[in-house]
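Could you join me in thinking about how sequence relates to backbone shape in a protein? We need material for that, and I hope you will provide a protein of your own picking. Once you have written the record down, we can walk along the chain together:

…
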Amino acid sequence: MSTFDKLLTTIENSIRHENTKIRESIPPYIRLAVTLRYMATGDAFARLHFDFRIGIKTIANIVREVTHHICSELSTVYMRMPTQEEWLNIAQRYEINANFPHCLGALDGKHIRIIKPEESGSMFLNYKHFFSIVLMAIVDSNYNYIFIDVGSYGKECDLNVFKETQFWKKLVDNTLNIPSPCSIINTNYILPYVFVADEAFALHANVLRPYGGNELTKEQKIFNYRLTRARRYVECAFGIMANKWRILHRSLNLSLDLTVAIVKTTCVLQNFIHTEEGHVEPLINRDRLNSRLHLEGNNLTADEIRQKYTEYFSSDEGSLPWQDKYT
C-alpha cells in the first residue's frame, strides 16, 4: 500500500460527505489530493480551482477540514509524548548518530512567514523584519518531531515561547517520564538526560546550551562543537519540511487558525512519511540499558551538569578523533 493510500485509509471516513439528490459529494481521495497539492506546491486556491475544477471557497473549506483531521487522527500515533523506554531509544540513537550521550532531542524555533494580520500592530514582526508566527519544536535524530508548539507571536524570543509551552511546564514538574540520571556506558560519568539548544535558550538541568563569548577554553570549544553536532538535527528537520511542503517558502495569506493547522499538519506528515517509508527506529540494546538504569545521579546545578559534559567530551572515553580540528 502506498503512503498516500495509507493516509487516505486513516482519515477517509472522517472526510467523507454524503451525496445529495442535487449532486454527488467530492470523494475523499480528491479532498486529500487537493490538500496535499496545496501544501506541496504552495499554489494559490485560484490555481487549484482550474486544476481540479473545484470552487475556490470549496477548496478553502476542504483544506481546513482535511488538515484538521490529519492532525487530530495522526498526532496521537505519530507525535505522541514518548514513554520512558522510547526516550531511552531516542537517546541511544543520538549517541550512535551524533556521538552525544543522554540526548533526548534537539530544541529550536522556526519563524513561519505570514502576511500581516489586520489590526495586529507589530505583534507578529520578528527580529528578521518580516511577519511570522513561531514553530517551536523538539526533534529526534531521525528528523521526526517529538513535540511542537505553533502560533506564538513572531516578536517573541525563543526562550519566552518555549517557557509558555506545555512541554516546558511538564519538564519543570518532572512529568515527562524522562529517565533518571545514570552513568554513561563504560565510564564513571553519571549525568542526566538532556535536550540540546542554541544560545537563545536558558541553561537548565535538562537543557544544555553552548558556552558564550570569544574567550573560550579548548574544552569549552569542544563542548560547543559536540553540542552543535547534536543540535543540527532540528535545523535539518526544518529544512526537510520546508522543501517537501513548499507552501512554507512563501508568506501565508490565510487566517491564523488555518495557518497554524497547516504548519502542524506538515510536521505530523513528516513523522508519518518517515515511519511509513522505512525510517525504522532501531531497537534499544537491552544489555546496555540494564547495566546502567539502576544508577542515580547527584543533584547537580545546570552549570555543573554542563561542566561534567565538557569534561566527558575532552576525556579519553568521550573524545572523538577529529574534534580538535574544529576548535
About this structure: The beta strands are 103-113, 132-139, 145-153, 182-183, 190-191, 194-196, 207-208. The longest strand covers residues 103-113. The mean pLDDT is 90.
